[in-house]
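Hey, resending since the last one bounced:
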Amino acid sequence: MGLGEHHYSLTVQWTGNLGVGTSSYRGYSRDHDVRIPGLPVLPGSADPTFHGDRDRYNPEQLLLAALAQCHMLSFLHVAVKHGVVVTHYQDDATGVMRLNRDGSGQFESVTLNPRVTVVDAAHVDLAEQLHREANAVCFIARSVNFPVHHSPMTVVA
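The structure tokens again:
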């Protein structure tokens, strides 16, 4: 596949019919499975606030995870391009979602907090700057309509 379009597919299957379907708001489970060929099934549900199962992944967590994963992968890519050797990367990401009176809602912002370890002390400042470049090339960050902030910290191995 070239640099053109890339296509992705998966199946989301609702598993929460408790016998009467959606006959009442509390009469069904929000449980579902995300199925991607060749990968383990990802058990999903709603956030517990919305009557979901806290032992399953919810869409809000997965959106935050997608942003954090994409930024990490983009950062590692630009680090290689700039000759910065990274030996450790961890991000404790956070997101803010606001609910509206009409029952709708949206993410207002996400803050990524990557903690990066580099081999060379001379690359600390460059590594910090590379988060902007990584954000500019991250496919997921470029696709959302809310700000993705970064609060990086870089240390030397």
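Helices lie at 59-81, 124-137.

Sorry for the duplicate.
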